[in-house]
């Protein structure tokens, strides 16, 4: 082989390696496939259950199955706590919050280990009607006055939607055909995914607080937060030697961001002062450590809350939906509700007494 040909061959090999490395890098920083398949929406929530199982030590806490869930396991062989790897949820705000979908409808993508034949047979027993779209069968299953549409996209991917029409499930099937493109996805994902911290195993972007605001405000553990339900948020959980929580509110302007920051700081101060004065039920050690680690700062038009989430607290919240309704360690849910009412009244009275609700004329700092 001549010297010139050898250099040419080496050059071709280097170009191929660079292209391959570039493709691997793009795939690494691209949104997860489950999120890329979601249709246009008001909010997106993504969960990497492989990482969550490791962080929350699921294997150390056997899950007790409700009878309905056990029947599902017997029919399909699927155990979500074992077989689910990724899940992504699109939130669709409904124009009529009193309609059959309530204030929010959902589109979902699940990635894991499924027996497609057994799952299809099970879905067929529940669906009085079916639709074939782009070569995929969509099972139409009645559920609480709505229609839940389910499609098995591949051997490891299932799409679900309970929106009023089939537009969203059709969109997910269409996106599945272009899933190999690393930056495919909805406009919301394209705008904000780059702002999700790297290596986050759970994150949300957009109006992700909508499901928590059914009663007209944003509530967490029974406490109403001073953040609009339809605020654009970027929230994430990632492991950096500990579980790090970051919630960023994208405010309309710097004045609004300053108001949110001040209100959240006052909320944290009130919670600590009420516990120290005996005004609320004492928190358990994990919840107290979580609250003590919280910090709220402002960066221009954004209010940012950060905290360290103790692993036992994450396990508690994932083990039961009730963990989101009552403060862990409280003697009774009613006690938590009374505590929340005290904090909410203090926040509202403090806000009214200390500053106006809107300050459009506030100068930039």
Rg calc: 24 Å
| Strand adjacency order, main sheet | 4-5-6-7-3-2-1-8-11-12-14-13
C-alpha end-to-end distance = 69 Å
The figure for the number of domains is: 2
Outline: globular
> What is the overall pLDDT average?
79
Largest sheet geometry = 12 strands, antiparallel
- Reading the helices and strands in chain order gives HHEHHHEEHEEEEHHEEEEEHHEEHH
Which structural category do the helix and sheet elements fall into?
alpha+beta
* Helix count from the secondary structure assignment: 12
Low-confidence stretches: 320-365
Number of strands: 14
| Beta-strand percentage range | 25-35%
Helices and strands in order, then pairings?
Elements: H1 3-29, H2 33-36, E1 43-48, H3 49-56, H4 67-76, H5 80-83, E2 84-93, E3 104-112, H6 116-126, E4 129-133, E5 136-143, E6 146-154, E7 157-161, H7 167-176, H8 187-192, E8 200-206, E9 218-220, E10 223-225, E11 232-239, E12 243-250, H9 254-276, H10 285-293, E13 295-299, E14 302-309, H11 311-319, H12 333-354
Antiparallel strand pairs: 1-2, 1-8, 2-3, 3-7, 4-5, 5-6, 6-7, 8-11, 9-10, 11-12, 12-14, 13-14
